[in-house]
User: Fold this.
Amino acid sequence: MVLALLVKEPSHGYDLRRRLRAALGPLGEALNAGQIYVTLTRLEKAGLVAHERDDVPVRGPRRKVYAPTPAGHERAVAWMAEHAGPQQDVAEFHLKLVAAAESNLADPLALVAGRRRELLRSLAEAQRAALAAGPEAGLLLEGVMLRLQADLRWLDACGRTWSARAGKAEE
Assistant:
């Protein structure tokens, strides 16, 4: 997500933390400031971001401003397009939705639609397997189907939320 935010606008760690907290709402409150700098260092070592310039604030130390390298930009775009299959972590998908909206790298509603297709395909496979399975395996597959149905309901909520945001942005 840090890389996606840098694609939108080069930033220093302090500004990234502020932007993440604003984008994530209550989830961002627990964000450890030190983790931002650790993440920036790792991204720099991996060749995904580069130190662009130093900002000199009115008071306080100079702040390193980072920007994505071409490889970093490509990685952020690839992350948006990644499909993790039916077991994708809900929190990671939420971060991807927020990063998509913040960076303009992808349309959150398109991500929701793509995720819905993946889940519906997985649900259909689980239903076919449950019909062919014995009672013991059927119980396990019922659990899988219930989880997939819950994820689909959550995606409905995501779709409503992001549709409402898109409507407000158009006004």
User: Anything to note?
Assistant: The longest strand covers residues 49-55. The mean pLDDT is 82. The first helix runs from residue 2 to 8.
